[in-house]
Amino acid sequence: MTIEERLEKMGKKVRRSNMLLMSFRWGFCTIIFLVPGCISIHTSYRQKFTVTQGIKEIQVSIDEVRLTSPGTIFFDVYPFYEVTVINDSNSPVRLLWDDSTYVGPEGQASRLIRGQTRKIHSGLAQPASVVPTHAMLRETFIPEAYTDLFVGIKPDPNRNARINLVFEVEGQKKMCEIQVRFVAP
Predict the structure, then answer these.
(1) Which of 64, 79, 86, 156 has the lowest CB atom count within 10 Å?
(2) Percent of the chain scored above 70 by pLDDT?
């Protein structure tokens, strides 16, 4: 028995347009209350960063970046990161984005996309970021695998992720590795 038949049996007249409106309202409410839960990529875990392999005369630090989309029910869009690179050497250093990777706790490797890159251009080669001598660079990035809002990091406090930043220093490639631990807030 359909909803229309049940309502008619109860003695109420129902118009098809009212049924469509009711369906639309239920669908809208479902989207409002369920989709932010699906889109919220990050859970209650925080990320702690430790440099496990550094490069002489280059200081690197990473932080989480919380972006809240305006006009929504304040869901966090993750996993954006901000890297700060301080070049204390006497020669310029280049951060090679296309050679740098994020390895998630499940072991999936993904290249890093600079925060200034538009989604449509994310598959193209990215220019390196140059850090002049005795200068600092601050850049936002996201792992390419997580650029889709419905795919996110699956935090596991028992397994670490890592970020591998590849630099070109005096013509040689060198890697800086940062361990990512998931901890309860």
Answers:
(1) 156
(2) 61
